[in-house]
Design brief:
Length: about 475
Amino acid sequence: MIFFGRLFLFIFIGMAGMRPVYAAVEENAEKLDQFKEEDLKSFQGSLVREEEVKQVRDANRTLKTMDKLDQAAQKAEDQGEILSKQQIEDLRKKLLGVQKKDRWRFGIDGDHSYTSNANGAVPRQEKGDHQWNATGNTQFNFGGKKTDMGLELRGTKNWNLINSTNDTWQVEERLRSRRKFFKKTNVSANSRIARNNSKTLEIDTNKIRWDAANQMSTNYAFSPKLAINLDLANQKRLFLQEAFDQDSGWQATANPSAFWNVTPKSRISLGYGQGVNRNRLKVGNSNSKDFKLGYFGQVTRKSSASVDLSLSRQNSYKADSIATTMTFGTGYIWQVTPKTQTSVQLTRGFSNTTSESVTGDTSDTAVVTKTDNYAVNDNLALSLNYRMTSRITVSNSMGVSHTRTETFTTDQEDAETRIFTFPVTAGFALNLTSWLSMNFRYNFSFKTGDEKTDTSRVHTWTSAMSMSF
């Protein structure tokens, strides 16, 4: 562990001291603390589950379990009954604890949060606000032995105590399916249609937005170590009201990728993506391309690490701008004990957006003004999760983020800003029963920068409850 501690310290010092080679859209840089977090947790979780399944499988092979099956079969035989293969399989599933899928489920989720600085003001000028969210969902499972198919209907209501203009409500349906064709091909498809209703000051009625999204993924196991994947997706946003119809638009993406299992506990991923974005006013019309390279691997029996690099380029034709993005991230997750898990994430993102504007009329010589926006973001996040009991899990996290932006107009520096952010989160989850769980969380964030208006502090208390039947 001392070796890996020194390795991460060396990487962080090297990244902090390297000369900025800008490249990543700035608004994306603020979310880099989530870079590949879910993938790393999923990879580590699969390793932990694999170990648990192995232990359960070994236990199920003991004479105790097999004796129960033999005794049940012998009892039926003594009574003059002959068990069919299906009856034996059903009995085996019962003994091994295999549960049957529910064909219908119903759930209710709700949460309340209080934010001490809802308007993002400087200290001693904050204004707090309460926010409530309520969600109801119904899930239907139509799947069979070879096909997984489900339908979900969901409704969400959001309202605020003071800033009532932020109140919204939404209804949506989600249809998902997954099926295996032949022996090596898996195909999954998902669709979503939602209607969003929000308040607005432009017209004397609510603002209505329709969202439609479709996604299909095809995975082909080329060999035991190599898998090829193709992901296709499209999204459409539609405003039927004349006051907002110019905001309607659509986008589509295609992402082929490949996954190579170098060893049973390590994986390399390589991906390429291409997308288009169009809207009514054609101002934001753009084409984008991206390239991704990633590695997941087991470091020790209880820890995993990931390294990811992504490059992308987006051309906006109407605005005559080019945005280049480069993001580097590394993460390390360690299962300290069966009840304690800790993780470290270190990311760095670069952004460079270049745009040109033309001033003057046709009778005069046109003047071309070139503007370059550069940004670099460094983010370090630490988290610790502890399962106190079988029903209580405690989570804590802290981090630091640094963002520096520079703006050049016709090769002359026009502005420079620097912002530091320090977030801290503490909370615990309580699983009261199999159908009822509660979550309590406290978050504190302090932000400061070169300007006085960049300084702010936010306290947020959140309590949530979830029921599923």
